Amino acid sequence: MQNDKVEYKARFDDREFTVFILKASNGCFISISEGSAHRLGALNVSLAGSAGTSTARVIPSKYDGIFLDLLSQKMAHMLNGICIVSMSINSPLDTTTMKSIMNNILAYVSKGSDAT
Known about the structure:
The protein is α+β, with helices and mostly antiparallel strands. It has a single domain (5-115), classed as 2-Layer Sandwich (Ribosomal Protein S5, domain 2), CATH 3.30.230. Helix 1 (65-79) packs parallel to helix 2. The chain has helices at residues 65-79, 95-115, and strands at residues 5-12, 15-24, 27-34, 42-49, 52-59, 82-88. The protein has a 6-stranded mixed β-sheet, with helices on one face. A hairpin with a 2-residue loop joins strand 1 and strand 2 (15-24). The protein contains 2 helices and 6 strands.
């Protein structure tokens, strides 16, 4: 599989995030960490099925659980598979930051889907 992983750093409103995306043939793993180090945090798993998308909060988020739900569900639906999202942040995200993170991830995954 071509372009199966990507790691990048992004800065939004004086906050730095490290994003790691690993694509598989049946889904993806996404890690979002505040700062420059990779850290595991809240964990959501979503599975796309014929009756919709099912989501489980394996480790609930202290902040922005709905953002995690939305991200994992959208990716699972888009890839018609499984999406695992881990997010470790120090404080709640504002709406602009959430949108920016989501758009960056969507752009990578949709571009990667076209290339495979």
